[in-house]
Amino acid sequence: MPTRKRSKKQKRSSGATKSRPTDNVEVLEGRGFRMERHGRFIHTSVNRTPEEQRALLEDLAGSVDERQTDLKRRATAIETRLLEFDTFSVLAALSLQNHLADPETYQEYSHPGKSVVAEYATLLALKHPYSNGTQLFPDGATLHALQSEIEAIFQLAIWLQVGREAQRAIQAGRASESLSILQELQFAMRHNELNVRNPAYTHHHREVLEGLFKPFEAELVAAVGYSIDDAIRLTNAILQRTNQLFADRLDQAHKSLREMEREVRNARKQRQRPIDMANTGQGTDEEALERAAFIHALAQRPQKEVSHGLRAALTEWLFCAAANICSFTVEELAHAAEVSADRAAAFTHTLAIEFGDVNTDFVEPSPTHPLRLRPLVHHAGRYLCPAPMLLDWAIQPAFETALKNIGGARWERYHKHRHDWLLQTAVRLLQRIMPTAEFTTNLLYSEGGDRAKEAELDALGRYDSLIFLVEAKGADVTDPARRGLPDRLRYDLGKVIADSHAQAVRAKTYLSAAPEAHFRRTDGGPDVVVPVDTVHNIALISVSLAPLGHLTALLHADSALGFFRNGEYSWVISLYDLLVISFAILYCIG
Length: 590
What we know:
The chain is α+β, with helices and mostly antiparallel strands. It is 54% helix and 14% strand. It folds into three domains: 17-82 and 139-197, no CATH class; 202-406, no CATH class; 409-589, Trna Endonuclease, Chain: A, domain 1, CATH 3.40.1350. It has helices at residues 50-62, 64-82, 87-99, 115-125, 140-171, 181-195, 202-213, 217-224, 228-270, 274-278, 286-299, 303-319, 322-326, 330-337, 341-351, 391-406, 408-433, 479-482, 486-512, 549-552, 575-589, and strands spanning 17-22, 25-30, 33-38, 41-46, 327-328, 352-354, 376-379, 382-384, 438-446, 454-463, 466-473, 516-521, 528-531, 537-544, 571-574. The two termini are 38 Å apart.
């Protein structure tokens, strides 16, 4: 896989520099701040005086127009460059360049590939009709240039976000103030959505998808034409087919490399002319003559140059077939996945985007874009998935949209099932971590003994003298929140975090108010009775289906957002992170 050098360019008005990774940590530094990227997590620290803060914001605010112009110029140049090539060939080559990895040595935090590069190039290409281009495929230098330019555009997009926030702060008279917690959350959300893909392991996400949608197989097949099992098989088939075709091409490349090295050695020994090397005894084949001339030219060079030249040529030969490696028809996909052609066609129809579907005014990278919901690009009966990481994560919104469109009791049933499945899975994982703990789900309790004022508690767990009060929230954050819109971000996080915390605090208050707390089971089983004098600690847990680890790490009990009450704090954790923790404790530590 081609490698690239990291940029050492110094940022102008902010005084920021992007340094080489130290211990596999990517660092961005500037006046009074430091940002570190540890895998999928971003850590930011700020240390500036009010005067330094004001001066910095003024510089950043003043740079917005120039940076916007620079970003548009770069994007236009990339669009023009993309149109010079067959569209599937250049997009597939960028996809391979950013997603190929050795599974035996792959490390998330150090892998140089960036899915967002292939995504952004695809979005620019989708502004136009399909291009056959004047060149069949891009060479290594072109791919390297496109990669570098797109990465530079994403850096510009981040600084534009900072600059616009600086403009708003100056207009509001807050130029000397540090960022509020909401502003920090906005930045973290937007930066995460722009640059980080797949906040969970594939097998964990597929476990979630199966748990959510298997009970609705009949409804989904009727609504969209395929089930969750079909979706997973088809997604697997796309990835496995691409990997197999690439591996086959790579084997051919290695065989050709050895053969050409042998021909170069023979040419040196025999000192043949190209015409003699190409003569087959029945005339001279033009293609053979070109190959012979290439071998003859290599034979005149030092061995080190020969090895480099051959490997470079074969790398380009490998990537010139990128479109054939990465694209497929419905029939080819159905055969690879061993599903019916009708279901494969329904799958591609649901997740496909067409050329011309992206607005012509699209320039700046967006945290939410059409490929995240429709990751398959369609042209003339063939499909290309330039960003395979988006495939699995497009299934849940597609299925939820279908169930919501059905409406009525089915959507309500799914909504309840999503909550119940999340709760039962979280409790199962907590019990895996603490085998002797006792958990009971779906409880009611009466404050003041009044049944008319019964409150709900999702789960109560007892582990020695420790009580766990668990609340589960299956809702996800909306696209406006992902884009960092402050009111929507506050509202969505409030629904996921603040509401569950308030419910847990209410239960804690009830549990602490009397010598003995009684919780009634909704399934009719015996009441759960907790003698308060046996309880030494009460822990509040909010489990979300939405992966929010990049945001919850910024929250604390006294956060100005007011999500947590009276200094109380809930452990807010995504189910995906709980899956990892339970596995680590059970298999790695235990």
